[in-house]
Design brief:
The structure is a homodimer of 308-residue chains. By secondary structure, the first copy, chain A, is of the alpha/beta class. Chain A contains 11 helices and 10 strands. In chain A, strand 3, helix 2 and strand 4 form a beta-alpha-beta unit. The longest helix of chain A is centred in the middle third of the chain and has 19 residues. At the A-B interface, helix 6, helix 9 and helix 10 of A face helix 6, helix 9 and helix 10 of B.
Chain lengths: 308, 308
Amino acid sequence: MRLCHACLSKPAEIFLDYSQRRLCIDCFLKYYEKKVKQTIDKYRMIKVGEKIGVAVSGGKDSTALIYVLKKLYPSLNLVGIHLNLGIKEYSNHCNEILREFIKKLNIPLIEFNLLKQLGFSIHDFEGTEHGKKICSICGTIKRYLLNKIAYEERINKLATGHNLDDIVEVIFNCYLQGDVTQLSRISPITPANHPKLVARIKPLCMMTEMENLLYASYLELPFRSLSCPLSKGNRSLKQKRLINEKIVQEIPTFKHMLFKSYLKRIAPYFKTYPNVEIFECKYCGMPTSKDVCAFCRLTQRVKKLIVE
Amino acid sequence: MRLCHACLSKPAEIFLDYSQRRLCIDCFLKYYEKKVKQTIDKYRMIKVGEKIGVAVSGGKDSTALIYVLKKLYPSLNLVGIHLNLGIKEYSNHCNEILREFIKKLNIPLIEFNLLKQLGFSIHDFEGTEHGKKICSICGTIKRYLLNKIAYEERINKLATGHNLDDIVEVIFNCYLQGDVTQLSRISPITPANHPKLVARIKPLCMMTEMENLLYASYLELPFRSLSCPLSKGNRSLKQKRLINEKIVQEIPTFKHMLFKSYLKRIAPYFKTYPNVEIFECKYCGMPTSKDVCAFCRLTQRVKKLIVE
């Protein structure tokens, strides 16, 4: 029996490949919370008195996020924001699990139902020219709505459950595609550069997907058991699998090194990336770099299709 | 039987995974030569009347390089430069194969023997604190001597056999380590930024290691059959294997995309990388960013060890 490297008394249950450490459950939970706190402190993500919106999907990452935030900062003004995307079976499943959990945590929850409040769901994009990029469209819709709700609710910062695996996949893809625009935006904290844009924070950006899964599982936090039927076979999932199953096998520190090297050594060179001018969308008034924002462009086409 | 995608008449022998093309031997050789010529033209590597030194090791890459240069530019003033590194069996094996081949090509060959001309070989570094980084030390020694010989021989450009696999491994490693210094130097052509530095060109930078192997093999060019005994298990070989056996399996265009994206989109941001001031080494007079150049620092220690 191997003992925990931290307490040296209980049996080790978890092996962290990137640091070659073995931990027992209790020490893992302490380690997890300490590391999230260190990340929040290092990037000055939260200030006293701020109202923090947490984007909660019902998945393990955002579930772990809202729980750990409440535990680390019991008196913090937290609000959950949940978008029901109208994806068959999946969305209602996520919604039900989440609602009960947030209630138990005694945190207010803002729910937004795409189908009920806007008259369409993510499924309506399947038939359009964006059908093949459905995850990217869904990302645009979510970013827009989360920001709009946070802005209207006078939320100071919007916290999302992005984990290290999410971020490393994006960095890997940006290097591969030479996507400097997206690369220059990768950061644990995104300041608000327009009065109608809410600053975004990623408190779990240093935690792997597996660590979030373990944290949520050991604490028996309820999270969705279904995976999104629309995301099957998408690029991001494929590249995450390549990174976890192939690259990390050879270079266990790969994810941590790639992100830290990016932040410390590479990102400073992209500070000069041209900040585009921000206008207000002529339809919805929300910030955009063009005449009409991406959300209005996408949804107007879908609304038209539904009416036709 | 599958037919060649280019001539549509002969049986295809080669499958290029990154472009999904199948070629017969003749069309592959034409394709190879055309692509090398395009690379040379695109980066303006060679000008009329220049004297080009080709670093020849006896391996498939530099053998393919000197042959294809002679074939593409029959009247070019070419000179082979070969360093005998004094590595047991390996170096003499390389030297013998190479000497005969270059003679047949009717190209002058400059040979430099480390053991005979400097009194030490690469083996002498094995016992030092650099023993674990022997490939990196060997690289420093080779770069220094090749430049010195080229400079003394009034050579205008020094061509090396670096292939796409070599370059992509370096880019991958620089991203991982955040090594901005090395990253900013990656280029198909390195201009001479000091009178004693000879410009360097990499005409095979767009060709994969496999393409060079196939080119040399189909033309029955003689190249070494032994691999360097000192390079076993080094980082670069491990990461090349990871890239070829794991990443390219999932993303066949990985190597071409990573390099092209780097050149076109990422590299421009490193143009601002501080160009260090260049001095002349107080011992040998060759260019260095410090008081004493890396070659003199390394070799003086080894010479001392030998004398002791």
